[in-house]
Request: fold
Amino acid sequence: MKKNAIWWAVLVVLLFGPNDTLANDVRAGSITISNSWARATALKARNGAVYMTIKNGGTASDRLMAVKTPVAGHAGLHQTVMDQDVMRMRPVKAMQVSPGGMAMLKPGDYHIMLMVLKAPLKAGTSFPLTLTFDKAGEIAIMVPVMKSGPMDAKGDKSHHHQ
Reply:
């Protein structure tokens, strides 16, 4: 059944394109993944990051426990923290998503770190990512790659200073 979900996700992307809303919202059990994206990387970048919103519409907590993608040597959940006036990224073993709750993975906070990229992430493309939850199991999504650009302190690309 998990293979069927992957094939359906690929088919939706092929039919509707990576920027269509249907291609970017995926539901499995009580978990809904939406607004996933990655920032384009420089040619020699070895790492990248993925951001998204995870909603739990159920009555029980679930946990994001692992992530994998063929575009990187390995991927993992990370959190950016302030440590004595220095921003640092720390690995996180799992992320709890409360019943009826939401977890936002965004720049400067929780995110999925892609380590040892096999090729640069290019704007306008997309790539597969599999999220493994304790209760919902594996959820395959396609992540669109967005153009790099300036961001404010909250990670909002829509706010630019002139």
